[in-house]
UniProtKB/TrEMBL annotation:
InterPro entries: ATP-grasp (IPR011761), ATP_grasp_subdomain_1 (IPR013815), CoA-bd (IPR003781), NAD(P)-bd_dom_sf (IPR036291), Succ_CoA_lig_flav_dom (IPR032875), Succinyl-CoA_synth-like (IPR016102)
PROSITE patterns assigned to the protein according to its UniProt record, in alphabetical order: ATP_GRASP (PS50975)
PANTHER family for this protein: COA BINDING DOMAIN CONTAINING PROTEIN, PEPTIDYL-LYSINE N-ACETYLTRANSFERASE PATZ
GO molecular function, one term: ATP binding
Protein name listed in UniProt: Acetate--CoA ligase family protein
GO biological process: tricarboxylic acid cycle
Amino acid sequence: METGVEEAIPGRSLPIARIVAPRSVAVVGASEDVGKFGGRVIHYLQKHGFPGRILPINPNRATIRGLPAYPRVSAAPEPADVAILAVPAASLEAQVADCAAAGVGACIVITGKLAEAGLEGAALQDRVLGIARAAGMRLVGPNCLGIFNPVDRAMLSSSLALEEDGYAPGGIGLVSQSGALMGTLLSFGRHHGARFSRCISVGNQADLALEDFLAFLLEDAATRAIGLYIEGLRDPARFRGLLRTARQAGKPVFIVKAGRSEAGAQAARSHTASLAGAFPAFEAVCRDAGAVLMEDPQAMVLACDAAIRLPRWPAAELGLAPIASSGGSTVTFADMLPGAGLRVARMSTATRAVLGRWMPESHVALPVDTGSFHEGTSGDGLSACIRAFMADPDVGAVVVPMTTQPDMAGRTALFPPLAREGGKPLLYLMTAGAVGDASRAVMRAADFPFFDRMSDALAVARALDAEAAGRLRAAAPPPARPDGAGPAPALPPGALTEGEAKRLLAAYGIPVTRERAAATVEEAIIAARAIGFPVVLKGVSRAVVHKSDLGLVRLKLRDEAALAAAFTEVAAALEAAAPGQAEGCVVQEMARGEAELFLGATHDPQFGPMVLAGAGGVLVEFLHDVRMAPAPLSAADARALIEGLRVAPVLRGLRGRPGSDVEAAAEALVRLSWLAADLGPRLVELDVNPLILRAAGQGAIVVDARATLTEETTR
């Protein structure tokens, strides 16, 4: 199993498990004043029942909070497993050096204003790290808020979230690059009855990084679901491997990634370069590994909790069954489903028959308003309908958005047993404010999740559906290389001509248009006669990216006279666009079809070879209907990528138009993915735009392509 808990920094002696659950803790900057960082750390260790030894460090006090205090860490009677440093940046270096001399196993550095504050702070961070490395001492942080470990009652933090009582141990493991956010999520989760195993704030990741703690959580028996708040990765390749390990271990991973909107390459040569970017690649890798990306950190915690405490969502792409006594709440919830990428379930005949016993046939539909029952909302009718939904093969989860009504707490008590009996998630939504607290208390007592906002319930439903899709993807066989895929022809580095890019594609079995080079009008006419009219004429130059924008493309040339006139115009436009760099013209067959797609390939600097698929034609970047995936792809993943596009209904055929050959497009994408995987970092970018899809069963063909290669490197 690829975890590498102790691989990140060779030579370290203290395992992460002992950092998370130390036997002794020195608190540098300890104080009686809980208004200070060091004062809160001591207070919270005692408040939450830390079972190990606490060593307050303060040169001006003999005792702190009833414990003997020591002037420095090296004066303590034993070397601490962990020292928590909450000191000004100016004294940090000396304190870390003292910890190193004392044989401390690890320092949790709460101190901020280091690398995140500029060059001076970065230099200080480097010196501190050098001291720790030389001593074989590990660092958590700096600029972090420490570790919450309810399982071992080791609350190694100064976060005000620890003012609350009752952090019972549970199964949610959390790693966050924001300490303040981690404390907020801990408190938020507690309100909802969610329980945590270990929560780690990694801050600047000077030494131990998010990947190290993710590896630890994968091996941690107490952790059953993992939430990650990520700003940046130290080791993207290792992170990707850890996500795969998590899926193999059956531990769902939910992620919020900061910086989703960062712009990528603004002046890119190709559509691929401008559409790829850091976040799309990150998103593609997470999806491929079966991890679930989310937008809201609070919803991420609720999703982790639901994955642990609710029955498993049975399969991907199932519908939801909303039912409640308020038509307004159920209809509102159903109206929000499409925007969340979800849908209302399609009831089976058996389910409709059950509902028909309780309400008029005219009202048997989803969402269900139990106010339409023959005798009004009743516990028996509500239970019967929910049982029918639980047995319905198209229902992924039942949703109960409860509004204010008599005996809310009594009605609420029905739902946890029904969900456990039915074996599917039941998402209980208490939309009322404080008046619904008694119902929330019922759910907490039943150890069952609840939601306060429709948006949270929707986000969790979408996450559970995506998690089910990840399980399916993990069970799929690895991609198989299709026959005739490669090897790549020898091509020069730099920008390729369209003809060279098509040679590359053809070497992998991707159909391309027939074409012939033409340096004169006479040669163009001879080429057109061989290919057959109508034809396309294009000007060729490595210096030109978007040929159609510069008048270098002429379509539907139906005879020799039209071709001759077009040749003169294109040759003049080519010389104007690329003086001294023109490479003549090319005559191509005129391909026709039912739809157009864009395909792309690139090599992401963090995650390796990637392919893209999207709506094709001149509007590719404006529509931004593009999906991305790591290469190579299986045939099933290629189809899923294309079918996930917003343009997919058009590909299937609309308003009497025949469906296009999506299978041929998927095969082309698979072959392109192997090209990207084989070329590796040599492939800077490759565009296929458009790939013309003929009618279903009649294939697809590349009409235009461009690519950029780097020098081949020896390994």
